[in-house]
TrEMBL record:
It holds the Pfam family Peptidase_M28. GO terms for molecular function: carboxypeptidase activity. This is M28 family peptidase. It comes from Hoeflea prorocentri. PANTHER family: N-ACETYLATED-ALPHA-LINKED ACIDIC DIPEPTIDASE (PTHR10404), VACUOLAR PROTEIN SORTING-ASSOCIATED PROTEIN 70 (PTHR10404:SF46). Residues 228-418 form the Peptidase M28 domain.
Length: 575
């Protein structure tokens, strides 16, 4: 680190952030009125330090879960309904069937569909209430609804029940999204109760589900801080995270709210040292609207984001107890070296990055913005195993995630201070980098690996050589480009325009299926999704193989076209 960076990090204090964490640990932030209370506190704390704050007031479509239970065999079982379950306060009665599935063993598979596509269970499920292992997630609910279930019970891995959301619709639905709105009653139960219900299902028993839901349009406060840079004030780094939580949600995400509060305070105080601007936002509607707040922002400011946002940085679940390491750290490949250096400088730790999930307020992929961070630091695998913990989607690996146990003891002062410094340094470096710190050669290398894997899986049934050749040609052009940047033959302004433009092309082709400015479902998107059918040809037999090959042909055309467009952008700079 240089002297300026060291001086900046030395200004980090826990006074404001820990005060916010302690305050947030005393009240729930699920209902919009309670979320607004939290937003007002963030705004008041910022303004007390002279930070200018703009408060937006979007209208969001939300689903607010209430009480739930399962009645079976003369017994009542505790349950929690996910957001977007169908209301069943009068009860839904039906035959219970059990369809076994493996519990997710890491975050990659938490939200996936549960069943092998070759497994035909429609006749077992249709018209019945089905139960299976897993969180009541969009993949599970959508798949069982497609197979004709009238209700779904997710069996959580432990003694706790985790809140969640079961819609695959990303943000507030539009007219095209509405057909995917869930139309089944869904609840989650804990594992001991789930095992008892499995026995009832095996005996052909009937049950009754109850779920109280409130759904509709709500006005929500959304604070935004814009810290102007001095050299390129129109360009900015977007730092963001959600303020609404399940219950008091200390590790998910009061610690994140506190981190952004302190980053905003320090950067505002030192705004004369910023080259580019920094934009910081606290989202409502994350838990009850499937990222409705960040999606509204992406929609409302789409053209500005396209023109000026150089990176988006998500802040979720930093500063949690035992979260000493940086494992499963979300980052797009082009940002890998940049964040690894920041983590090494702040924490002296190695980084183990991974492809960002279709989760966590990554509402900007369809615009095409380079991205890093989502979940923050986490505990070691060894500690997780020692404690008998299972995979969760936040809280540094603590299984208090999305439960009433996510209370003050989940936060760790020392780790929070370290993680605040990491976010501060990353955002500051990104804003002040003469050349935007994203290496697209890492991305094309990732593409070549993906294409190679898909070709191996497709065998001689489909030829991906056109994709491989177009990627290799782009990679070669990028080698010349970065050599020119290093030598100074390509001016920084030209280089940065190319690096940003490449994001607009290569991020969507790697992370989305929908057209730009639309939002893909909240389901796993495989790498290079337009050609991912190459990995699924074993599931498409007979007539179906021809349809799959047609899809691959069209998908490869889209990919090759995007790669060639990117190559042209680079070659214009190379001269």
């Amino acid at each position: 680190m240089n002297e300026l960076e060291e001086a900046l990090l030395s200004e980090v204090s826990l006074d404001e952030p820990w005060g916010l964490v302690e305050s947030f640990s005393t009240f729930k932030r699920e209902h919009p009125a309670d979320v607004d209370r939290g937003m007002e506190e963030v705004v008041a704390r910022l303004r007390a330090h002279g930070v200018e704050v703009k408060v937006h007031q979007p209208k969001l479509y939300l689903s607010l879960p209430g009480e739930a239970r399962v009645e079976a065999g003369g017994k009542t079982f505790r349950a929690k309904p996910p957001a977007y379950s169908v209301d069943a306060r009068d009860g839904l009665e039906g035959e219970l069937v059990y369809i076994g599935a493996n519990q997710a063993d890491d975050i990659d598979t938490i939200f996936d569909k549960k069943l092998d596509p070759t497994r035909d269970v429609r006749s077992m499920i249709e018209g019945k209430i089905v139960m299976s292992e897993g969180y009541a997630s969009p993949g599970m609910i959508a798949q069982f609804e497609e197979l004709g279930a009238i209700g779904v019970i997710g069996i959580n891995p432990g003694i706790d029940i985790h809140w969640g959301i079961c819609t695959s619709i990303w943000g507030t639905p539009d007219l095209d999204d509405l057909p995917r709105k869930p139309n089944v009653v869904s609840v989650a139960v804990n594992n001991p109760d789930g095992q008892e219900l499995i026995e009832i299902a095996k005996a052909g028993g009937r049950i009754k589900l109850f779920a109280e839901m409130e759904e509709g349009w709500f006005s929500s406060k959304l604070p935004e801080v814009f810290i102007p840079g001095n050299k390129e004030p129109e360009k900015y780094v977007l730092l963001h995270g959600h303020l609404d939580s399940w219950d008091v949600g200390v590790g998910d995400n009061a610690t994140g709210d506190a981190t952004m509060l302190e980053v905003a305070r320090v950067l505002w105080k030192n705004r004369d040292k910023l080259d580019r601007s920094v934009r910081i936002a606290w989202w409502p509607g994350h838990s009850t609207g499937r990222y409705a707040g960040s999606t509204w922002f992406a929609d409302a400011f789409a053209i500005d984001l396209e023109e000026n946002c150089v990176a988006q940085v998500n802040c979720d679940s930093p500063g949690c107890r035992w979260a000493t390491e940086f494992l499963n750290l979300s980052r797009m490949s082009e940002a890998d070296a940049f964040i690894a250096k920041a983590i090494e400088d702040v924490a002296g730790k190695p980084t183990f990055g991974e492809r960002p999930h279709r989760a966590g307020d990554y509402s900007f992929n369809n615009i095409g913005i380079s991205s890093y961070f989502m979940l923050s630091s986490t505990m070691t695998v060894a500690m997780r195993e020692e404690k008998g913990y299972y995979a969760v989607g936040g809280c540094g690996g603590n299984i208090a995630w999305h439960t009433e146990n996510d209370t003050l003891e989940i936060a760790d002062k020392e780790i929070l201070q370290r993680d605040i410094k990491l976010y501060l340094l990353s955002v500051f470096r990104n804003a002040n980098a003469e050349i935007l710190p994203f290496d697209w050669r890492a991305t094309t290398s990732e593409f070549l690996e993906t294409i190679g894997t898909y070709q191996q899986q497709a065998g001689d049934r489909f030829d991906l050589s056109a994709s491989k050749q177009a990627t290799e040609e782009l990679h070669a052009a990028l080698e010349a480009f970065y050599s020119g940047v290093s030598s100074g033959s390509i001016a920084p302004a030209v280089a940065n325009a190319v690096i940003q433009d490449l994001a607009r092309i290569l991020v969507p082709i790697n992370f989305t299926r929908e057209a730009r400015f639309r939002h893909d479902p909240a389901l796993t998107v495989p790498p290079l999704p337009t050609i991912s059918t190459a990995a699924e040809l074993d599931y498409h037999k007979g007539e179906g193989e021809g349809f799959a090959l047609t899809q691959l042909t069209r998908g490869q055309n889209r990919l090759v076209s995007a790669l060639r467009q990117a190559k042209r952008e680079v070659e214009r700079a190379n001269g």
